[in-house]
Amino acid sequence: MDTSIKSFGSRDKLHKLKNKNSLFLCVIATTLTSRIPGITGAGASPELTDYTPAADVELILRGAPHCLPEIPQTVVEGEAAPTPAVITKAALEIAGIPFLVADAGSAIKPSIPYVNINHKQGGNIETGVAVNNPVEIFNKGKMLGKTLSKLTDHLIIGESTPAGTTTALGVLEALGYDAWGKVSGSTPENPHTLKRQTVETGLKAAGLADDIPLDPFQAVGVVGDPMIPAVAGITAGSKVPVTLAGGTQMTAICAFLKKAVEGFSFEDVSIATTIFVATDETADINYIAQQIAPINIYAVDPGFEKSENPGLQQYTQGVVKEGAGAGGAMLAAKLQGVSIDDIRAKTEDLCRKIF
Amino acid sequence: MDTSIKSFGSRDKLHKLKNKNSLFLCVIATTLTSRIPGITGAGASPELTDYTPAADVELILRGAPHCLPEIPQTVVEGEAAPTPAVITKAALEIAGIPFLVADAGSAIKPSIPYVNINHKQGGNIETGVAVNNPVEIFNKGKMLGKTLSKLTDHLIIGESTPAGTTTALGVLEALGYDAWGKVSGSTPENPHTLKRQTVETGLKAAGLADDIPLDPFQAVGVVGDPMIPAVAGITAGSKVPVTLAGGTQMTAICAFLKKAVEGFSFEDVSIATTIFVATDETADINYIAQQIAPINIYAVDPGFEKSENPGLQQYTQGVVKEGAGAGGAMLAAKLQGVSIDDIRAKTEDLCRKIF
Fold it and tell me: What is the pLDDT of residue A347?
């Protein structure tokens, strides 16, 4: 591969996936955790974060959001950066990769066909009551993973879950990993103190702060989100290689899988993210991942510093960074022979048309 | 193909689909029309017909229904015939064909991952208010068809919709076709008078009895069911050949498509059903279809007269006949080289295990 992909981990397995059929699945969910002021940039206001996942996948499939009058953007100091769903859309369209959506529990349902795994959104983890049916979500995810892996050679799973790094932090900590101050976030000023307080409040509220490590389903139940058991289940059910398309949230999926599935092998599971997560000075995806297993991590650099679009340039300043599987979608397109320059040009083109 | 498949129509196009990848999608829906006593055999009582579609697809994917304590059966004169979902399951499993479910509006949701196209079940067509959002259902179906056709070479679409021949009759009549007394049914005594009265009552209630032919979306809106615009949309959106797996209900899909999509071609659309529908003396699928277009119809004979299972033998007496895409599933398995004797043996085996 060219220099736009950095590989972390011992075994570069990308050559096995070159020019194979791939299928991109975006799993969406919301939680009341994203209503905590200041915890996420994935929406113009805390209430609007409920709409971000549905608007993201509508944008990718239909070219415009239908549940909202406006496209999701992250606004930092008056500058708006577009949702990473634009990058995902550009990469998938240019490479002709099929796009499916699964709902793990989003408050707002997208106006497109989507696979129902779970209907109800997650709670606010400060209450210690986050997901009331993690086993059911995991089992349905497994069924879906098994089915989808009959339809492709390579399953790429992205996510859109506002405040998802906080709920990922919750699961990582509840499972006994050292992740304080290591999860990424959608704003340059990563609110680590707020994220930590939120998780600690939730573990205390559940009366489980002294019982760590928890059982993985209990961890999701008290301080997680519904996306985590859904993506873990799909991964566990797949018979083909899986690329987890996301940032530090995907390490929580790996941590969950390691404890929930006896003897789970990460041989055919990788994480693909953007260079903005991999080089995030406020976070450390590799530090978290290597505590779990020798998981291969790929980081794709879209070269937005070369872009004339001020919104995309914001990404190089630590705004947004990742989401809707943008890193994995770019990796999947590159595996089909698409150049990073073409992905960037198409992303700019979509930004001009959409915004 | 061997003698277990009868072909009606001018052009046998099966050779083009031999050994191609295929994907079987079962579209489920319920309506309050199925609560009319005596109108359908697809459930042990009118109220239980709400559960039949969900139980059918749970049976196919999980090996047992989860929404109901019992497997759907059709009981005629004390003899129970198993749901045709058992045939579908046998054929798909033996051929290794992937199975997906889409909900077009079923009152009871299956406990498996399913694609949401529409949430709400249909009304009782006697009221003249059947489906309130047929355009939205059709458009979402189109999106799904487009996506699924990127994942396979051949899309087979079955359905499970209790009282679906009555709502199909409604749409056929509302579109100006001569279908009185020609639709099939799940019992040997096809209640044609009741079906006709139900449709006529609905058209009158809607104040449209004298305005035939109606617009296709209006036809579904007043005397149809939500499965019809969903399957029509999926078919219209598909870029690969589509086999409509069902009996006379599938002619209503074709009639809808002909009027809703300008210049729609049936070149790559066929109907596949069971020999029990094709030879049904109380119905005439060819008579209906040929009014619409020169649609190819394939009828598969599972040879149940050779079976020692009394429930399957009931099929040869006109009980059940078809459903959950049984005919199309058998056709798809045969296209993969599976013999009809093996499908029958596997069906008998499943009946022994399940019932």
Answer: 97
Report the range of poorest mean pLDDT among A48-62, A190-204, B35-49.
B35-49
pLDDT exceeds cutoff 70 at B9 = no
Residue B18 main-chain phi, psi, to 5 deg: -60, 130
Q: Provide the ipTM.
A: 0.93
Residue A351 pLDDT: 94
Confidence of residue A10 (pLDDT cuts 50, 70, 90): low
B68, B62 in Cβ contact below 8 A?
no
Yes or no, beta carbons of A117 and B116 under 8 Å apart? no
Closest approach of A95 to chain B, Cα-based (Å): 12
**Amino acid in position B266:** F
Alpha helices (runs of H) in A247-323, residue ranges in sequence order: 249-260, 275-278, 285-292, 310-315
> Which candidate in A26, A93, A115, A135 is best for mutational testing of the B interface (most B CBs within 10 A)?
A115
CA-to-CA separations, A328 to A243, A279, B87, B104, B120, in angstroms, rounded: 7, 16, 40, 31, 35
Output the CA angle B270-B135-B140, nearest 5 degrees. 70
Quote the CA–CA distance of B285 and B306 in Å, as a whole number. Answer: 25
Residue in the block written with tokens 């005629």: B76
Q: Which residues of B fall within a CB distance of 8 Å from A99?
A: 147
Inter-residue contact B88 to B158 (CB < 8 Å): yes
Split at pLDDT 50, 70, 90, the class of B2 is: low
Find, among B108, B100, B127, the residue nearest to A151 by Cα: B100
Q: What is the pLDDT of residues A16-33, one digit of tens each?
A: 899 999 999 999 999 999
Distance CA A293, CA A269 (A): 11
Distance CA A272, CA A298 (A): 5
**Best mutation site among B151, B155, B156 for testing chain A: the one with the most A CBs within 10 Å?**
B151
Q: What is the chain A residue with the closest CA to B62?
A: A143
Buried b (16+ CB within 10 A) or exposed e, B47-84: ebbbbbbbbbbbbbbeeebebbeebbbbebeeebbbbb
* CB atoms inside a 10 Å sphere around CB B281: 8
The Cα A76–Cα A323 span in angstroms is 17
Q: Cβ B151–A103 below 8 Å, yes or no? A: no
- The predicted-structure confidence for B118-143, as pLDDT tens digits, reads as follows 999 999 999 999 999 999 999 999 99
Taking the C-alpha atoms of residue A214 and residue A231, their distance in angstroms, rounded to an integer, is 19
Size of interface A-B (CB pairs under 8 A): 57
Helix (H) or strand (E) holding B165: helix B164-174
Chain A residues in contact with B23 (beta carbon < 8 A): 151
CA distances from B181 to A173, B38, B118, B166, B283 (A): 67, 16, 30, 11, 6
Interface contact flag, A113 B114, Cβ < 8 Å: no
> Which chain A residue has the Cα nearest residue B146?
A98
Task: Collect all residues of chain A within an 8 Å Cβ-Cβ radius of residue B104.
Answer: none
Q: Give the span between the Cα atoms of B337 and B242, in whole angstroms.
A: 19
Give residue B59's pLDDT.
96
Structure tokens belonging to residue B198: 């139900």
Give A214's contacts (C-beta < 8 A, 6+ positions apart).
Answer: A174, A175, A208, A222
Q: Which residues contact B9 (CB under 8 A, 6 or more apart)?
A: B270, B294, B295, B296, B297
